Amino acid sequence: MCGIVGYIGKRDVAPLLLEGLQRLEYRGYDSAGVVITSPKATGLKMVKAKGRVRDLEARVPKRFTGTTGIAHTRWATHGAPSDENAHPHLDADNKVAVVHNGIIDNASELRAKLIADGVEFLSETDTEVLTHLIARSDAEKLEDRVREALRHIEGTYGIAVLHADFNDRIVVARNGSPVVLGIGEKEMFVASDVAALVSHTRQVVTLDDGEMATIKADDYRTYTTEGSRTTASPTTVEWEAESYDMGGHDTYMHKEIFEQADAVDRVLRGRIDDRFSTVHLGGLNLDAHDARKVRRVKILGCGTSYHAGMIGAQMIEELARIPADAEPASEFRYRNAVVDPDTLYVAVSQSGETYDVLAAVQELKRKGARVFGIVNVVGSAIAREADAGVYVHAGPEVCVVSTKCFTNTTVAFALLALHLGRIRDLSVSDGKRIIAGLRQLPAQIEQMLEREDEIKKLAQEFAEAKSMLFIGRVRGYPVAREASLKLKEVSYIHAEAYPASELKHGPLALIEPALPTVAIVPDDDLLEKNRAALEEIKARSGKILAVAHQEQEKADHTIVVPKNENELDPILMGIPLQLLAYHTALALGRDIDKPRNLAKSVTVE
Ligand code: AGP
Fold first, then answer.
1. pTM of the model
2. In the structure, which protein residues have their CB atom closer than 6 angstroms to any atom of ligand 1?
3. pLDDT for the residue numbered 530
4. Residue 214, strand partner residues
5. Which atom of ligand 1 is nearest to the CA of 401?
């Protein structure tokens, strides 16, 4: 989705901004633009282009110099992708430039009023109304002009504003869309995502909703949209610039799949308590007394995070014996759910920015619920909004298709389940058993990734399929769902996931040689039931790929996965299927890191 980057200092700004935009490319966008100035300049210079950042770069003239600027990658919401609709947006006098992430809900109403007042619009965007509102203010300070304009706005925004008459500063504001300041040595950065600035500084200030900031080359000030000063001290970003590089892999997806053993090691680090066979989750803020009062756990997330939540719900039921379920946050927020004070709500999000999840959290909090976050990005909106939570420490995930964050989120759920379980009825020996299982995970992941060549060969066959069925039962079902999502989003092959138990209630009608089935067959108490499902498929000449702990006679091929504890098996069983999705997409020549129509962080409705 949209991205913002800005700089003020002494360096030549255009290359810095273009580099920042490149680092935001992973979020998904359809056009880009940049506007610059400098203390001695009398006006603003702007270039915009539909397409990629490289298309913008190609348009930047040789003498495009300056030391202050803001830039943007746009994901179209109001108006098609085009040069005109790309940000920044300028007013009629070319004095005010605005870049904006988010959506202005009352844009059409404001646009109509401005047009009636004689304002001419150059784009179809919602953002342009903000530019004209700022330009029409006659307040003395730029900050007041922005504040006045924002008073008319309903909706979400992260904005950066540049003004030709106030070219010693950039004014930014946040309401529902992230804005981060990067503090350098006599230079300041602003971005919607630390990815854009972490190669220059790791000292950041994250604005809260309702907060604004003025950044100058050697100073920054934060205040509320009402004008009261706020104190925001810089924190250090733990992710380094190199974590955003491809590190010798051809794609981020491949790199991130292969980082999983290290990532799992990180989510476990410092959290296991062998003395009491439990775990420490420092950010949880839930003492034993409160934990015993939890009567239900409700997990909310979208897409892959929702699937991780489904696995988490089963772990919590199995280990802590607390009724738990997961629901897409995108559905939950619209159904006026009954909010129960004894339920622990858990919001799951890799990015911590997904609007549907954030809106669900806000609705829950408004109704007095206690919400935990399981999030990857430190300081993100959901992490800040939640009452407490657990970071999954997967490191930055750049590929739109989530892999390592999924795995780490399921491990974080295992930790939460163990923690709740050991406060309730999970025995010391079961606690020990789960801890031993958790400790085995990194090595088992490595072992599995060594089978890449075998999976690559299989992928050549699957690339010919028009459609695929993924089945699993109980622990295997969320694994099947996630594997099916992975395949469809990166390879564009239609895939459907079904509980294996439901086959005979409908999907068996689809089985024929041209529809391959991927079956998740863990060695657990349901093994024989799963084998029966394979028989049923084979009897109808269906082709089967099994992901199992031992060779499956009825399958055409079995990917044998190392066995862990039954409760933890789902964490591992999805990993070979990430590789299957990857190699199938590669065989089909897909744009693996940026699948069509998708964005990394879905920050709008
Ligand atoms: C993952 O592969 C998807 N691209 C998508 O389903 C994603 O998981 C979903 O949009 C939620 O994102 P989040 O975890 O950042 O909230």
1. 0.89
2. 302-305, 349-351, 354, 357, 400-402, 489, 598, 601-602
3. 95
4. 171, 221
5. 2
